[in-house]
Amino acid sequence: MSLLALGLVLRPSQAPTKAAPPSVQDFRIDSPYLKETSGLAFSRANPGWIWVHNDSGDGPYLYAIGPKRKLRFRLRVRGARSIDWEDLCIGKGPGGRPWIYIADTGRNIFGTSKGPASLVFAIPEPVIGKDLPLPPQGSPPPLYRSAFASRFELHFFLSPKPSPREKELRPPNVESLFLFPGGKVLGLVEREFGGRARIYTFEPWVRYKKLPISHRVEARLLTTIQIDGPTGRSRSISGASVDPETRSLALLGFLFLRIYALPDPQAKDAGGPGGSSQPPKLLASFKLGRRGLHEAIDFLPGGGGVLYGSEGRPAIFTVLRFLPPNRPPSSPPHRK
Fold first, then answer.
1. What is the largest CA-CA distance in the chain?
2. Is the overall model pTM greater than 0.85, yes or no?
3. Residue 180 predicted with pLDDT over 60
4. Would you say domain 3-321 falls under CATH 2.60.40?
């Protein structure tokens, strides 16, 4: 399938490499359960599997897509609410095992009202065949239950460090969640229609004695990215992911994908707005076609591209392969 057929263009001045043009391939899943895909992540505990969830209007459910790209089962996240789930990511957590983090942080459904607190939920990723049974091929997707979720209530601040006179922000509309390498710091990206993307960070596991936990955490401004282009939602960020090998940050919009050098979560007070760190370097920019609203993204296992998903039914998932901007052409691909 050609790039023009998908409406995908790589901006030449920012191409990762002249020798490796991007390639695209997609697959579709037509299921009554996948109505409005809003978050996705490749499994760390189950190679070849993908976790996805819907946007607002669904319950606290994750959906497991198997290696043959069929919906295999549903997972109810115990102890979690679902007002406006926006994104998920997976990385190392307590016990050194993979954990799934889910952002219930969407605010646009509340209009001018404050609404309830923004929350992030976390569960240990289940191992299929051990923690959960593997359903027979071709069977209707059964419903399983997860371990009880830990809960983090987010409180947002513009100051990178605590200060006596700081004022807590009204919860922003956050539609993107990512995990920094090492698994200690989570990143949140505000969706703002004016082209500004504020990135906040927080550490979920600073203190705990037993699981699950319920904590109040402070999400503090790390940096601000300006998205060029027309005004409106075409400049807003709807998904994010990190490639730990190349330390690259992918930011997905409804019609674009941008790859940045991953900012250092500790590099605050570095001269940026409000004492935040300087904006990260833009490495590559892709213009995506109008095939629904793109809202979910994760880097491919081992790097070398991304998988992104769009709202609507059938659920459309697109694989975009490219040479990672931060990896020399002679470097072998990383295998996790």
1. 59
2. yes
3. yes
4. no
